[in-house]
TrEMBL record:
Protein name (record): tRNA-uridine aminocarboxypropyltransferase 1
Subcellular location: Nucleus
PANTHER family in alphabetical order: NATURAL KILLER CELL-SPECIFIC ANTIGEN KLIP1, TRNA-URIDINE AMINOCARBOXYPROPYLTRANSFERASE 1
Entry similarity comment: Belongs to the TDD superfamily. DTWD1 family.
């Protein structure tokens, strides 16, 4: 099947006894019968990218999600007993039988995802991060959040004074000096320029209105002053993209992925390993890819 939708017939030719009559009718309406454009080119649900398999091309490090296709029914979550398919988006736990089969991703710092209590759990991609990187990622439901004012944290948010990751790393290196071989960690000496200027990164997973409400909270507002990071531009493949917003509005899991992917790229360049991408963070998009490809087949595009 040509899932790009190009020249994809919408019906088969009728070959019964009335074949000629059907064939003539078919030929008369061939311009209708043979679709040359994608079924859906641009909607709030989908943007056709015109590529054969955009996820595989961009993120070759994502493990095969085929075994998820074999799961047809739902099971009860061990903790909350709600009916779920792959994972519980309330408890952030995999369903029985999937533990050990879903990839794990090692992240260099902790990740807090703040969602507003009014957000609909099942529609967010934030649980994807907790499922594949449970040691590092947590979802915090506002207003039940930690006090970030005294933490070595950065907030990913496009504030007017937000720095890019590159600027943040460069400023830090400038502040700590070129060769400070003094930082001691776990008994071994590490150069401080191999360290990061933060040990926690905070994402907000909410509508704009709720985000403004969260940002005014005194436990998080100090991060706005000089601890915000703006991501470089990346095209989103999110299916809930809003028609009037730019394609660079990322879903939460895409934002987390690009934060760490860009960070790794900057560190590799700095260490003289530029140009080599080991795709170590691709599996953050494991469930994203599965849903993306399911919708891609469902809508024949
Ligand atoms: Zn549950």
């Amino acid at each position: 099947m040509d899932i790009t939708g190009k020249q994809m017939p919408t019906t088969s030719v009728n070959n019964c006894g009335n074949y000629r009559r059907h064939r003539n009718r078919h030929l008369q309406h061939q311009h209708v019968m043979v679709r040359t454009e994608p079924l859906i080119r641009n909607s709030s649900l989908w943007v056709n990218s015109g590529e054969a398999d955009p996820m595989a091309a961009r993120f070759p490090g994502i493990d095969s999600t085929d075994f998820l296709d074999a799961i047809t029914g739902r099971t009860s979550c061990r903790r909350c007993h709600r009916s779920r398919k792959y994972y519980c988006y309330t408890c952030y736990e995999l369903m029985d039988g999937l533990a050990g089969r879903v990839p794990r991703v090692a992240l260099p710092v902790d990740v807090d995802i703040i969602k507003h209590v009014q957000e609909v759990d099942g529609k967010s991609t934030a649980p994807h991060a907790v499922i594949v990187a449970p040691d590092r990622c947590s979802v915090r439901t506002f207003p039940d959040i930690p006090d970030y004012s005294d933490q070595n944290a950065v907030l990913v948010f496009p504030a007017p004074n937000a720095r890019t990751l590159q600027h943040l790393i460069d400023d830090y290196r400038h502040d700590v000096g070129p060769h400070p071989d003094s930082a001691v960690d776990n008994g071994s000496v590490e150069r401080a320029d191999k360290q990061l200027p933060f040990n926690r990164v905070v994402f907000i997973d909410s509508t704009w209105r709720q985000t403004n409400h969260i940002l005014r909270d005194p436990r998080i507002s100090p991060l706005l002053a000089n601890r915000t990071v703006i991501l470089s531009e990346h095209e989103s493949l999110f299916w809930r993209h809003q028609r009037d917003s730019p394609r660079t509005y990322l879903s939460t899991i895409e934002a987390i992925y690009y934060f760490f992917s860009d960070l790794q790229h900057i560190l590799d360049e700095r260490d003289g390993n530029g140009g080599h991408n080991d795709h170590r963070y691709d599996n953050l998009l494991f469930f994203f890819k599965h849903t993306y490809n399911k919708l891609r087949l469902k809508y024949n595009i």
